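Reviewer 2 asked us to include a model.

Predict the structure of this chain.
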Amino acid sequence: MIIISVGSNLPGAWGDNPYEMCQKAFYYLGKKLNDTSMVVSPMYQTTPIPPSSQPLYINGVILFDSQIPCEDLLSILNDLEDKAGRIRQKINESRPLDLDIIAYHDKIIKDSSRLIVPHPRAHLRAFVLYPLRDVLPNWVHPESKKSLDELISELPPDQGIEPYI
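Predicted model (structure tokens):
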């Protein structure tokens, strides 16, 4: 199983608001993966991390099964972000689209110059853990071996998250 997090807090090339941006990302990712069957989580409205005056985010996760090489998947995600209007200038800045590989078939990848899997901060982010629990409640972090409920119980209290729509 491959887990991708999806987030936005700005309008962009694909929509007038972050929710539309995320919905289009689901669509375009499916097309890039040759209409691979995907499970999309409910969406959440979340506060920025670290806390800032940025607009609120819309976040969710996508699950799918594929044998696409992880580096190729990363290239697809980066291309989609670019096409959606993302311009990378500063870390943790507002963005029209953010796509991250959270997990890739329970593999641990640390020897790549381009990515680390599982995502090195996923276990610290409510905006990843809550939607993931909605669609894959029995998932266990491949490194820590902790359940989603355990990881959620360890989250810092300053992460605002609520269901969207």
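The chain has one domain: 2-163. The longest helix spans residues 18-32. We have added this to the supplementary material.
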